[in-house]
Amino acid sequence: MADISMDEIKKLREMTGAGILDCKNALKEKNGNIEEAIRWLREKGIAKASMRSDRKTGEGVVAAYIHPGDRLGVLLELNSETDFVARTEEFKSLAKDLCMQVAASAPKYVSREDVPPEVIKEEKEIYMTQAREGGKPEQVVEKIAEGKLEKFYQEVCLLEQPFIKDPEKNVKTLIQELISKTGENIKVRRFCRYVLGG
After folding, report:
1. Which DSSP symbol is given to 186?
2. Is residue 1 part of a domain?
3. Structurally, how many domains does the chain consist of?
4. Burial of 198 by CB count in 10 Å (0-12 exposed, 13-18 middle, 19+ buried)?
5. What is the pLDDT of residue 122?
């Protein structure tokens, strides 16, 4: 097992926002490999790429994608903290991937926070009614509705959707990976999906 230095622990802590002990355990678990330690912390739900989520994102790109056949198009604004990051190939490539994601999976919102409360309420009521009509006992009706609501978010929220090129991860994780690499906050501000005649 590799000896873990305080510097390595500090570096991992800065990158993930996880506690010192969690960082030490992650590095021990992954023999000092920082990338694998970040992944380990994420899997355990400890890493906080969201640590950077309150930092201002005033730069970025507006990316466009037109599906072959010219019947479907997407415009998407992806923001970063600096123009330097916005100009990198990785950032532009992420923006293009996100456009293709919107084209293929037709999300309605960027994140679950954007879903109007009345939509959530209505969905939940539908799921609870379905569960009751399916003969489920009252004590599990709420749980079933919550589970179906999670699936609903995965369908309609861009950040929650499985990434089309790698369904093992969701779009949020894809963005967090670039946040970890660049050290900057990256946010999808908005998108618009156009369908001919739609």
Report:
1. -
2. no
3. 3
4. exposed
5. 94
